[in-house]
């Protein structure tokens, strides 16, 4: 059994183990939610790596059909996930909106631009609170994507955007039940995870 499958098996044993009720363990709600998110993110990472391996094997045995064959290699770049013709990088640290955007640009990408309900749902299922490529810092109340296109389809949480204290940058905020009501405006100087997008 390879290392990835061994790790996945170990994680599922921990998840489904009978709790030891003789120990008094106390978590606050935030810590428990964070642990649950870590388990899901770890499991998804293992699943994505396995998918990449299968894609590489398929690409190695399939006839070369031209430039499109290069995508299987790109799908497997470390730290990136593939969905509907784009690669997504999920940060593992927190930065301001501008620092996050700069990191994306250095990776040959930009902060994510959400173009469809399917993409929004995909990002919601990553269980992150992260910067996205949307801001109204140029003109208050006029939200634009990092490619300078105007916002048309909106997935704001109820009551948002509210510009509650210089909140000019948008984040996707996991924690809502409805995957299409998860955006929040926040102060651009706050530190959050971020999501980069590179169209392939």
Question: Which CATH class of the largest domain applies here?
Answer: Alpha Beta
- Mind telling me which CATH architecture of the largest domain this is? Roll
Gap from first CA to last CA: 33 Å
The unreliable regions are 36-72
Q: How large is the count of helical segments? A: 5
What is the string of helix and strand elements? HHHEEHEHEEEEE
Assign the structural class, choosing from mainly alpha, mainly beta, alpha/beta, alpha+beta, or little secondary structure.
alpha+beta
The CATH superfamily label of the largest domain reads Mannose-Binding Protein A, subunit A
Work out the helicity level: 25-40%
| Percent of residues in beta strands | 15-25%
Which geometry do the CA atoms define? globular
Overall residue-averaged pLDDT value: 77
User: How many structural domains are formed by the residues?
Assistant: 2
What's the alpha carbon Rg, rounded to whole Å?
A: 19 Å
Q: How many E strands? A: 8
Largest pleated sheet: 8 strands, mixed
Compile the SSE list and pairings.
Blueprint (H helix, E strand, L loop, with lengths): L2 H14 L12 H33 L9 H5 L4 E4 L2 E5 L6 H10 L3 E2 L5 H8 L4 E7 L8 E2 L23 E5 L9 E4 L6 E7 L1
Parallel strand pairs: 4-8
Antiparallel strand pairs: 1-2, 2-8, 3-8, 4-5, 4-6, 6-7
Helix pairs in contact: 1-2
Keywords: Disulfide bond, Lectin
Organism: Salmo trutta
Pfam families: Lectin_C
